[in-house]
Design goal:
The structure holds 2 protein chains of 2 kinds. Helices cover 77% and strands 0% of the residues of chain A. Chain A has 8 helices and no strands. The relative contact order of chain A is 0.15. Chain B has one domain: P-loop containing nucleotide triphosphate hydrolases (Rossmann fold), CATH 3.40.50.300. Classes of the chains: A mainly alpha, B alpha/beta. Chains A and B meet through helix 5 and helix 6 of A and helix 2, strand 6, helix 3 and helix 5 of B. Chain A: It is a multi-pass membrane protein.
Chain lengths: 252, 244
């Protein structure tokens, strides 16, 4: 490897790298957040116990079937193929010309949503039955139980898996270069195409990807610790407090 | 006397296994009733049927003159009038001690946060846990958790308190602190329905003892009668086994 070339490439092309990395981050952050919201909704709906009344029961069953079709389809096909199908398909079939960024975010969100739905479902299942029963026993309905008791615990538990998904998204947005999204991989390819220094150019991209994923790891660790709260607690109004005898020498 | 909850012909099956058969039973206002019997006799299921954590297969549960098993009845507004204490405590792991007692009041009873905190502190004081308001459930011992769970149920100011084997999951040295709290509560005129294996406790606090065997109420009566002078053969046998 020629270090001088690396430095030259960076100094000549840094705006492109930065824009590419920025685009990658933007798509993966928004995609992960939207995907997590989709996943939370889908996961929560899929864990609603089947209601007694027939009408509601049928509606829930139909929704569940639709959700599992969605999840299975998007987990079961490569994102690079979905990108092609959705971006070109939407133009051909519906005459919708999506702008590239919207398409990119849409594809990443819907993909993440499919994975997150299963992560959330696993998270809800892992909460002990007693937590649901205790909430129901004080009169909470399903939504109140979920919102006040179950989901806070689920979100804490699925945070590591969500971080995983975020990191996968940062790396996998690179496949969106097939529809021409100007993310980091696309930009690096242009740089390399100009200077024919493929190895050095992609080495720079490699380092940038790693910096982004590692930063995300550190930030999520911090959040986990924050959510866990302090290890210790302080007692309130403890009666037995030891007071030291007053030092009379303080008098002037 | 006015009965708070009246159960008529209640039955419960899991699949084709019948756990409760034709239970008739009621709890009067201010009464402390202990339900005893061997494991698998249906005591806990009866309690869980009363607050609909298990759906009864048949029969009626009459509360304030209404059958709450009617389809149209709102089970959430019924449940908030019953306080439930579980064998496994089931404190909300994501809330500290104070919030465990506050969240139900705010969300279900729609009390203001200040009022809810005041009520919570009042009952945490009753169970002697008011110094631990900041602690998370995982930082407490079993006995402390169960006392908080009792305070959580009391904070809802229910008509009846249901206790489902509240000391069965506790280390022996912690049983005492929970029973002490329950004895104090029994003295305040609170209506209590207690499923328990603590015979001495049942003898001491209850106004009435119900002995269950194989899904039916085999015998019920005053504690002196059940413990000292049982009529039924199976009651005698059970007491011989448990009291030694």
């Amino acid at each position: 490897m020629n270090l001088e070339w690396v430095i030259t490439i960076i100094s000549n092309n840094w705006p492109m790298f930065i824009r590419g990395a920025g685009m990658t981050l933007l798509i993966s952050i928004v995609g992960t957040i939207l995907g997590a919201i989709i996943g939370l909704l889908a996961g929560v709906i899929r864990t609603i116990p089947l209601p007694e009344r027939k009408g509601k029961r049928i509606i829930l069953k139909v929704v569940n079937i639709l959700l599992s079709m969605y999840i299975e389809f998007f987990r079961g096909t490569p994102m690079i193929v979905q990108a092609m199908v959705i971006y070109y398909g939407s133009a051909l079939a519906f005459g919708v010309n999506m702008d590239l960024l919207t398409a990119a975010i849409f594809i990443v969100s819907i993909n993440t949503g499919a994975y997150m739905a299963e992560i959330v479902r696993g998270g809800v299942i892992s909460i002990e039955k007693g937590q649901f029963e205790a909430a129901q026993a004080i009169g909470m309905n399903h939504i109140q139980t979920m919102w006040n008791v179950i989901l806070p615990q689920v979100i804490r538990n699925i945070l590591p898996a969500t971080g995983n998904q975020f990191i996968i998204n940062i790396k996998d947005t690179s496949v969106l270069n097939v529809i021409g999204v100007t993310e980091l991989y696309f930009q690096t390819k242009s740089v390399a195409g100009n200077n024919f220094r493929y190895f050095e150019s992609f080495f720079v991209a490699c380092v940038l990807y790693f910096i982004m994923t590692y930063a995300v790891t550190l930030i999520l660790r911090y959040f986990e610790r924050k959510l866990d709260g302090p290890e210790n607690y302080s007692m309130i109004g403890q009666p037995a407090q030891i007071t030291l005898p007053k030092n009379n020498n303080n008098r002037q | 006397m006015e009965s708070v909850i009246e159960i008529q012909h209640l039955s419960k099956s899991f699949g084709n296994h019948e756990v409760l058969t034709d239970i008739d039973f009621s709890v009067q206002k201010g009464e402390v009733v202990c339900v005893i019997g061997s494991s698998g006799s249906g005591k806990s299921t009866l309690l869980r049927c009363i607050n609909l954590l298990e759906k009864p297969s048949g029969g009626k549960i009459i509360y304030r003159g209404e059958n709450i098993l009617d389809d149209r009845h709102d089970i959430h507004s019924y449940r908030k009038k019953l306080g439930m204490v579980f064998q496994q405590f089931n404190l909300f792991n994501n809330h500290n001690v104070l919030n465990n007692c506050v969240v139900g009041q705010v969300k279900v009873l729609k009390r203001s946060k200040e009022e809810a905190e005041k009520t919570a502190l009042k009952y945490l004081k009753v169970v002697g846990m008011d110094q631990y308001v900041n602690a998370k459930p995982k930082q407490l011992s079993g006995g402390q958790k169960q006392r908080v769970a009792i305070a959580r149920a009391l904070s809802m100011e229910p008509d009846v308190m249901l206790f489902d084997e509240p000391t069965s999951a506790l280390d022996p040295e912690m049983v005492g602190e929970v029973l002490k709290v329950m004895k104090e509560l029994a003295g305040t005129g609170l209506t209590m329905l207690i499923v328990t294996h603590e015979m001495e406790f049942a003898k001491e606090v209850s106004d009435r003892v119900v002995f269950m065997d194989k899904g039916v109420i085999a015998e019920e009566g005053a504690p002196e009668q059940i413990f000292n002078n049982p009529k039924e053969e199976r009651t005698k046998e059970f007491l011989k086994r448990t009291l030694k």
